[in-house]
Design brief:
Elements: E1 5-8, H1 12-23, E2 28-31, H2 36-41, E3 47-48, H3 50-58, H4 63-68, E4 70-72, E5 75-79, E6 82-86, H5 88-91, E7 97-99, H6 102-115, E8 120-121, E9 125-130, E10 138-143, E11 146-151, E12 154-157, H7 164-167, E13 175-190, E14 200-202, E15 209-215, E16 218-225, H8 236-245, H9 249-254, E17 260-274, E18 277-278, E19 281-283, E20 289-290, H10 298-318, H11 323-350, H12 357-373, H13 375-386
Parallel strand pairs: 1-2, 1-12, 2-8, 5-14, 12-19
Antiparallel strand pairs: 3-7, 4-7, 5-6, 9-10, 10-11, 13-16, 13-17, 14-15, 15-16, 17-20, 18-19
Helix pairs in contact: 1-6, 1-10, 10-11, 12-13
8-demethyl-8-dimethylamino-flavin-adenine-dinucleotide is lined by residues 8-14, 31-34, 39, 44-47, 102, 124, 127, 158-160, 163-164, 185, 187, 266, 285-286, 293, 296-300, 302.
């Protein structure tokens, strides 16, 4: 098989890149290791920046998001038994975020792809990348017991943190930066009304908690947990009790509990691989970088990476210029490092670390007090949360 761009991974970055390339008239094939149901079963991100909303609109898949998504102009920080609102909209000259699940973004992109008859090969096993340092890269995979090969001009590695693309780069050509946090997030999805109409990020001496949502009747909550914890050890009751303890009295009072629909533990990590281009292989999304979820930047960074990559490839094919692909890595990394900084800072501010101690707690309390009482500090927080300009 021949194509112009072979995309590895049908997560949000691979699917969005596929849609951007299709719109530019560029032929692409997506290879995905798992089944569509497996991909849709992963409950992850919930908050989309305006740039991400704009990209989805630009490829014509935004209709359901605008119908069902919730536009938020602020969020709350809970600490010391009270809640304080960060007025994102007021502080940033009108910018807001869209609360719409990653699962729904993925479903909209998948449905659009299927409706247009664009090629996605699910359950592709043993995907391997070849000759991307030359002019004729190839991708091999197995499906139903047979080996297949795709000849292409470019490979887009959109296969997440554990994918094969980054691992195919010779170690001497890549530099990685990493911080692993000494805790995880236990997340629960439930058909219960959200605690409040906006998100609540809570700093508590027992650990961090987050009240988020997917709709007016579906909640997504998280509590900071130990890396040794197993999901099976957390009954629904134990989760709700722990969440309630970490909220301010008013939120705790209005918390409506119910059976979990999904429950999972995610470790927290900051990670960046540099550069993001190796000859004719480009890395995008979680394949190149990870942020801890505090601040909701992961999916948004994935979207802006493929926004840059889609435009760069369109420039290459349609106006015969390599300028976009030559500057891809540098442009992405500037945005990525700023989001890494924000996510690391917000994580450090809100979580209980093993070495936080009494002094650390006082520092967090003083910083939170400053943050909610200084317009300058609140504005800094708000402009990062809504997303820095491209
Ligand atoms: P994904 O979603 O991991 O998709 C990669 C796809 O590649 C496939 N794959 C392969 N395919 C072929 N061959 C191989 N060898 C392959 N290896 C892997 C995988 O099966 C998969 O389908 O990466 P992508 O597309 O770059 O998307 C990144 C986002 O998923 C991620 O950044 C966000 O979920 C992060 N994130 C959040 N981001 C936000 O912007 N806002 C949020 O509110 C937010 N909340 C979160 C989050 C991540 C979380 N977890 C679980 C880490 C909340 C949580 C709890
Ligand atoms: C979510 O709704 O899953 C979510 C929201 C905000 C975050 C992280 C996750 O910072």
């Amino acid at each position: 098989m021949k194509t112009q761009v072979a995309i590895i991974g049908a997560g949000p970055s691979g699917l969005l890149l596929g849609a951007l390339l299709a719109k530019a008239g560029i032929d692409a094939v997506i290879l995905e290791a798992k089944s569509p149901d497996y991909v849709l079963g992963r409950i992850r991100a919930g908050v989309l920046e305006q740039v991400c909303v704009d990209l989805l609109d630009s490829v014509g898949v935004g209709a359901r998001m605008h119908r069902e998504g919730l536009v938020h102009g602020g969020f709350e920080l809970a600490f010391g038994g009270a809640r304080h609102r960060i007025d994102m909209k007021g502080l940033t000259g009108g910018k807001q975020v869209m609360v719409y699940g990653q699962t729904e973004v993925t479903r909209d992109l998948m449905d659009d792809r299927a409706a247009k008859g664009l090629a996605t090969i699910y359950e592709a096993a043993n995907v391997s990348l070849h000759d991307f340092d030359g002019t004729k890269p190839r991708v091999r995979y197995q499906k139903d017991g047979a080996t297949h090969e795709i000849e292409c001009d470019f490979i887009a590695g959109c296969d997440g943190y554990h994918g094969v693309s980054r691992a195919s780069v010779p170690p001497s050509a890549i530099q990685t930066f990493e911080r692993v946090y000494p805790f995880g997030w236990l997340g629960v999805l439930s058909d219960t009304p959200p605690v409040s109409h906006e998100l609540i990020y809570s700093n508590h001496e027992r650990g961090f908690a987050l009240c988020s949502m997917r709709s007016p009747t579906r909640s997504r909550h998280y509590v900071q947990c130990s890396l040794d914890d197993k999901v099976e050890q957390w009954s629904d009751d134990a989760f709700w009790d722990e969440l309630r303890r970490r909220l301010d009295p008013e939120a705790a009072e209005s918390l409506v509990t119910g059976p979990s629909i999904e429950k999972s533990i995610a470790p927290l990590r900051s990670f960046v691989a540099e550069p993001m281009r190796f000859g004719r292989l480009f890395l995008a999304g979680d394949a190149a970088h990870i942020v801890p979820p505090t601040g909701a930047k992961g999916l948004n960074l994935a979207a802006t990476d493929v926004g840059y990559l889609g435009a760069a490839l369109a420039e290459y094919y349609n106006v015969r210029s390599s300028a976009g692909i030559d500057s891809y890595s540098q442009r992405c990394l500037r945005r990525i490092w700023r989001a890494e900084r924000f996510s690391w800072w917000f994580t450090s501010l809100m979580h209980k670390f093993p070495d936080t101690g009494a002094f650390g707690q006082k520092m967090q309390a003083a910083e939170l007090d400053y943050l909610v009482n200084s317009v300058a500090a609140s504005t800094t927080m708000a402009e990062n949360y809504v997303g820095l300009p491209l």
